[in-house]
Amino acid sequence: MIDQTRQAAALTAIETALGSAAVDTNPQSLARYAIPGAQPSGIVLPADEGQLAKVLEAATGAGGTVQSVCNGANGHERVSEDGVIVIDLQRMNKVLEVNGELATCLVEPGVTFRELDAHIKDNNLNLWVDYAGSPDESVAGSFIKRRPGFTPYSDHFLMQCGLEVMLADGKVVRTGMGAMPKSTCWQLFKFGYGPWVDGLFSQSDFGVVTKVGMWMMPQPPAHKTFMVSVPNEDDIAPLYDVLGPLKLNMAVANGVAVSNALHEAALLGKRRRDFDGRGPMKTSAIKAAGEDLGIGHWNLYGALYGLPENVSILWDMVRDAFSSIPGARVSDQRGGVNPDLWNWRMGTMTGQVADASGRLSDWSGNQAFAVNPVTPVGGEEIAQLNEMSRGICADNGFDFLSQGTAIWRSVDHRQILPFNSANSDSAARAKSCAEALIAAQAENGFGQVATDPGLGGVVSGTLEKGGHSTLHERVKSALDPNSLFASV
């Protein structure tokens, strides 16, 4: 538990170092970063690395505990412990470089996908931005959280190249080729000389990322987006069985999203009209929700890229493969699909940065926990995961809102549990359901690729030695001996 006396002393020390205007303790501001049972004691917004170093020095001297977030301006990042001091890097938001010829960028942590996209458009560069769903999420944050997008560059962790990190003692280090002062390849060659350490700063409490380099996707000569809808819950197995070989052989190269009808309804800003706080929707109501949008129970969004003739050949192969599923509808045209859904989904696969119509959490609340299991790209495993997870959600009174993103040989699933943050019972039920999902999934061999604040301890408990290996403990001890940075 964080010592609040030390936290107060740390906030005072930070105010002394940067001025009172640098610290925000307004209750409305604090609430943006809060989760059920945890709220920050203060927020600090450094404008540059010099101010950030002063914040870390002041907090260390007072024995405080801090948590950095890349950009909390739009409510995408929240605290992991009650009373922590948030260091929000949203003011460090410079697009430092975009190389149109070599298709790379270097950005500060506060830069959002929307801001990067605007920079590219302003400079008439033929590059696509791959984002995980919200244009206002941080580019650096997507690497840190390992959040996937929907183009062939969907694996943001893989596409990262070169970091700058500030350690607890204020020392700034650059990884990869950035360790050489005159390097010309910091954003081109990932590894440099010696051990590759970039991954230590993703989903970690070892330091603060102050710059991140990313590879970007050049606009291809041709592309074709498509959608596959299947009518029944059980059709998820054959859908993924067809997709698996296409992904393995890179015929369908993008981050393929597969979502159920309720997920898409929530994505469009629909709310569950008959929601009374408990009880999942009936099968007939789920079917009606899908039909209202012109979609199936499960809906796959894929894209093909390359030379025009190659795209044409791939499309014939992909269309025939998915058409082998009884009842499947395979189309590269919108047809009767809701236009807002079609346009946004197709845009995510072609570098178009735009807002979806709604927020998933608004389906039956105003906040949400997300559970993030990973599976092979295989129908049997995914059918097992979904049947188990749907049952646990129903037992806890929740609808099953689910999306999977197939990247290489695995699928990152995201199961959404909306709740009302003003209702302690609603929040407690959502957290309890999330914990039950995580435990049951681990018991069946499905680990978590990421976790929401407040659930890290549960996920760690599913791993060997509580999720903290001897190596991680030694690295933490070496880089942050005073435990300045809160566990994530």
Automatic annotation (TrEMBL):
Q: Which GO terms describe its molecular function?
A: D-lactate dehydrogenase (cytochrome) activity; D-lactate dehydrogenase (NAD+) activity; FAD binding
Q: Where does the FAD-binding PCMH-type domain lie? A: 36-219
Q: Which UniProt keywords apply?
A: FAD, Flavoprotein
Alphabetized Pfam families for the sequence? FAD_binding_4 (PF01565)
Organism of origin:
Aurantiacibacter atlanticus
GO BP, sorted A to Z: lactate catabolic process
Check the record and name the InterPro entries matching this protein: Cytok_DH_C_sf, FAD-bd_PCMH, FAD-bd_PCMH-like_sf, FAD-bd_PCMH_sub2, FAD-linked_Oxase-like_C, Oxid_FAD_bind_N
Its recorded name reads: Flavoprotein subunit p-cresol methylhydroxylase
